[in-house]
Amino acid sequence: NENDRCVVILPDGVRNYMTKFVDNTWMWERGFMQEAEVLIEGQKPWFWNMQINSIAPGSGLITISPNSTVSEAINMMKQGGFDQLPVVAASGNFRGMITVAEMMKNVVSGKVRVDDKVEKTLIKEFPIVERTDILGKLTSLLKLHPYVVVVDTQAGKKQTLVGIVTHVDVLNYLIIADNYEH
């Protein structure tokens, strides 16, 4: 109708207002873009379309109980050389993640004591990928996050924790795969 009004608000530049929305990886990560729009075919590295299955086999995953103490978690992480651990209940229910950085922040600030349960330092928001997703998605997420949680969704319902992938895991895989190819 000619009597209707349309108001348009335009930022004076992208520097202060739109930095997230001009980042294709950020848009793809949140489902606003398709994978094909992020990179054109010639820009994709050789491993881009390979499945995450090849890097996260799903066996030997070390977890910690939500009833374990922060002190126990620190010792476990120190012995295993981990910066993060998945927290899994006795029922097999994946509760979240704990990290060295989050535990330190909470202990130093006095929010948590070392004899408190790790559940008090639980991180519940982190990037998740399906085991059948592509390495391109995984590596894009690792540009923004220190780790990515890999799950397997069975019959569109229950998500089973498969693994945690870090920068080192990807680099080790790429070195081995590249040496094998040549």
From TrEMBL:
InterPro entries: CBS_dom, CBS_dom_sf. Keywords: CBS domain. Residues 55-114 form the CBS domain. It comes from the Eukaryota. SMART domains: CBS. Pfam families: CBS. This is Cystathionine beta-synthase-like isoform X1. It comes from Leptotrombidium deliense.
